[in-house]
Design brief:
345 residues; mainly beta; Jelly Rolls; 2 domains; 25 strands; elongated
Length: 345
């Protein structure tokens, strides 16, 4: 673009360009600060689990935010109060597991699930989680026997190293799984039907659906699902509370990012691409394709927040803005004062 100047660093990476770790049961690929240096505060994983395939019971230090892009799966977790969570999630749903909460994911019929994971640590790798089989393999059988109150022979066949993703029988009904344990349910569910929510903003140009601690109490990470019609645009804005991690689900986008000091870069995005915008950097996202643009914005802050350039300009004295930009006051008075997150076509 003629308006580009300077270098903001690489603002785009793609899951299609990274190593895909395969097993007999499924696969995963990740974008972290190691292959996407600007992504210091968040790392992303794209994972596929066919029917019955399990992401092994595990936990990790960072929190895990996830969005289902295809199919359906069953997730489980237990919190520090021994309260359970079991739920089925489908395309358009998200889940959130706080750091340290043990959990699992299993693909359901008819064709399993695919999803995006975002962690609030750019250095985190999906390969370095705490796995239940790994712990069992490195704990003496007599210690396990004492811990669980069973004979040591119980653990003669538990030496299954690093299952990570493995095949298992598809689970039974959700009701049966819920009834198996009599422990109480977690007070704030870890799943949320984001795509099914009424948009927080909607216009002829598209829509924005937001999930943060105000409507999803379990989360400490905020997110938005943005849809932009052909020719529409996610308005000029910035996010004051957090860096922004983006995932492009469908469509073709052009993003312009302004860093100050005369620096501005423009980047094209396609499906499976990841974008990253540092905190408070001004930017916009245009739909430059023929199809609806759908992408995710994910943040490490519990509250979603953005500042609109248009609403800022039109909520300070018009004469002050006119003196800066040499725009007629009469024209400024016609501009919108409220946010317009997706500009109408």
């Amino acid at each position: 673009m003629p308006t580009d100047h300077g270098n903001l660093g690489t603002l785009r990476h793609s899951f299609s360009e990274v190593h895909n770790r395969h097993t007999d049961a499924g696969w995963a690929r990740e974008v972290t600060v190691r292959n996407f240096p600007i992504s210091k505060n968040m790392a992303g994983v794209n994972m596929r689990l066919p029917t019955g395939a399990v992401r092994e019971l595990h936990w990790h230090v960072p929190a895990e935010w996830a969005f289902v892009t295809y199919g359906s799966g069953r997730i489980t977790a237990v919190d520090s109060g021994a309260q359970k969570f079991i739920a089925d999630v489908k395309e358009g749903d998200l889940w959130f597991f706080p750091g340290g909460v043990p959990h699992s994911i299993q693909g359901l019929g008819p064709d399993g699930c695919e999803f995006i994971l975002v962690f609030n640590d750019g250095n985190f790798s999906e390969d370095s989680t705490f796995l239940i089989t790994d712990w069992f393999n490195h704990t003496p059988k007599e210690v396990l026997a004492e811990n669980f109150g069973v004979p040591a022979s119980t653990f003669d066949r538990t030496d299954r190293k690093d299952l990570w993703i493995f095949n298992a029988p598809p689970p039974g009904s959700l009701e049966d799984d819920l009834e198996q344990s009599k422990q109480p349910f977690v007070p704030n569910p870890y799943a949320f039907p984001l795509a099914a929510q009424k948009p927080n903003f909607e216009s002829a140009g598209g829509s924005v659906r937001i999930a943060d601690s105000s409507n999803f109490p379990a989360t400490t990470m905020a997110a938005a699902l943005v849809e932009v019609a052909p020719g529409g645009m996610r308005e000029l804005h910035w996010h004051p509370l957090s860096d922004e991690w983006q995932y492009y689900i469908s469509g073709t986008a052009r993003m312009g990012a302004f860093h100050g000091e005369g620096r501005n870069n423009t980047v094209l995005f396609h499906p499976s691409d990841v974008g990253y915008v540092p905190q408070s950097i001004g930017h916009y996202v245009q739909n430059v394709g023929k199809d609806t643009l759908r992408f995710l914005e994910v943040f490490t802050s519990p509250q979603y927040a953005d500042v609109s350039l248009a609403s800022w300009m039109n909520n300070v004295p018009h004469e002050l803005v006119a003196a800066h930009l040499n725009i007629d006051v009469s024209t400024l008075r016609k501009m919108a004062q409220a946010k317009t997150p997706v500009v109408p076509v």
